[in-house]
Design brief:
alpha/beta, TIM Barrel, binds 5-O-phosphono-D-xylulose, binds cobalt (II) ion, Ribul_P_3_epim-like, D-ribulose-phosphate 3-epimerase activity, carbohydrate metabolism, isomerase
């Protein structure tokens, strides 16, 4: 698979989301960081906001739920017709049941790991998911430094998927730039979330630069 670039609109202009989504129309999906000020110390988008983003976006929405009790809330987000819904392994009580509900609503099911959560926390349930998100910063804020210490976990996930024949999209999220994307690609990531790196410049140019940097390092 060629590298997928999902810009995070956490770094976009919050007063102009429709216009900002138009600026990233060449990307594969728009990454939407939903934060509840409990699972992480930050508050972002609620359901009515995501509903409107879904209505006006020219590209699919990739939701990253950083919320407590995703078992209760995630299916409602999936029912909006978004492309994918990813919740955190640390927050869910019945992740496999929840993944089934997300898929039943027509969304891809994703599970995310904080930097300190080991791969073993999800290894046995990955067959129920379409994507695994390895956080490369502590969730909560954009603009943080890429944590290279998460790379062995990414490689472990990549090797596991290859060995077991699992079709799993492997995302990285946090601190992804043209300098760090190559390291993540070499360790097996195929989908790259980037917020500040895309929106701090001209978004279409930054998306293309990230694609090219990833392509030079893609791992087989
Ligand atoms: O989920 C998160 C942060 O919790 C991310 O999606 C950030 O929005 C990425 O921002 P950058 O690190 O690329 O600025
Ligand atoms: Co995110």
């Amino acid at each position: 698979m060629s590298a997928q670039i999902n810009p995070s609109i956490l770094a976009a202009d919050f007063a102009n989301f429709e216009r900002e989504l138009g600026h990233i129309a060449s990307a594969d999906a728009a990454h939407v960081d939903v934060m509840d000020n409990h699972f992480v110390p930050n508050l972002t988008f609620g359901q009515p906001m995501v509903e409107r983003l879904q209505a006006v976006s020219p590209i699919p929405l990739d939701l990253h739920l950083m919320i407590e009790d995703p078992d209760r809330w995630a299916p409602d987000f999936a029912a909006m017709g978004v492309w994918s819904v990813t919740f955190h392994a640390e927050a869910a009580t019945a992740p496999v049941t929840l993944a089934k509900k997300l898929r039943a609503e027509g969304a891809r099911a994703g599970i995310a790991l904080r930097p300190g959560t080991p791969f073993s926390a999800v290894e046995e349930i990955l067959g129920s998911f379409d994507q695994l998100l390895i956080m490369t910063v502590e969730p909560g804020f954009g603009g943080q430094r890429f944590m290279a210490e998460t790379m062995p976990k990414l490689r472990q996930a990549h090797e596991f998927a290859k060995r077991t024949g699992l079709e799993l999209q492997l995302q990285v999220d946090g601190g992804i730039t043209t300098d760090t994307i190559g390291i993540a690609a070499e360790h097996g990531a195929d989908t790259f979330v980037a917020g500040s790196a895309v929106f701090r410049g001209e978004p279409a140019e930054q998306i293309e630069a990230l694609r090219q940097a990833a392509a030079q390092h893609t791992h087989e």
